[in-house]
Design a protein that fits this description.
The protein is mainly α. The chain is built from seven helices and no strands.
Length: 190
């Protein structure tokens, strides 16, 4: 059954809904994985996987099998994203504990409010960046056909750009000093 233009909304909604459900699955998996592997290792592994799988989006063909692969990638990437999301907030708490351990000051409110503010700024900057990217690549809103450049810009927004952010997350995790052993050392010294 062809729903015409409504079919786009149906399948886009389905795509996003499946991603959100899989994101919740990842949130549930975050605690058992981080208990087994450690927060830093779990965060690193999830970030690497998000980067690799995001790059794969760029190379998917615009065919029915390509769309199925896109949905499968959405499922797996969303699970890894769900794993990372609660880890960030848990690691903020570790940073607050480390601040108290190292300097004797409780900076919990400052750390969490800074994290929340950074998240809001990040969302605003990302939303604006997508608009600038699409404009730079010549995307025409509501156009039936897009130029090859516009399609490339959309593909980059779903592939290499998120992968670059994942690489940045990996780099930051390499300099993040709070390993499982360090956290255990802090807690035993109290």
């Amino acid at each position: 059954m062809d729903l015409g233009f409504a079919s786009f909304f149906f399948f886009a909604g389905l795509f996003l809904a499946i991603g959100e459900v899989c994101n919740m699955v990842g949130v549930v998996l975050a605690m058992p994985l981080s208990k087994r592997l450690g927060k830093k290792t779990t965060f690193l592994f999830s970030s690497v996987m998000m980067g690799i799988l995001s790059i794969a989006f760029f190379y998917l063909p615009v065919t029915n099998s390509g769309f199925v692969c896109m949905l499968l990638l959405q499922i797996v990437i969303s699970i890894f994203t769900g794993v990372v999301s609660p880890l960030v907030w848990s690691m903020y708490a570790d940073v607050a504990d480390y601040s108290y351990y190292k300097h004797g000051t409780a900076s919990t409110a400052l750390i969490f409010s800074s994290g929340s503010m950074a998240q809001k700024f990040g969302g605003a900057i990302a939303g604006s960046a997508v608009l600038v990217l699409f404009s730079a690549f010549g995307l025409q809103p509501n156009a039936v056909n897009q130029t090859a450049d516009a399609i490339c810009g959309m593909k980059l927004a779903m592939s290499y750009i998120p992968a670059a952010i994942s690489v940045l997350m990996v780099v930051l995790m390499f300099v993040y000093p709070l390993t499982t052993e360090k956290i255990r050392e802090m807690k035993t010294s109290w």
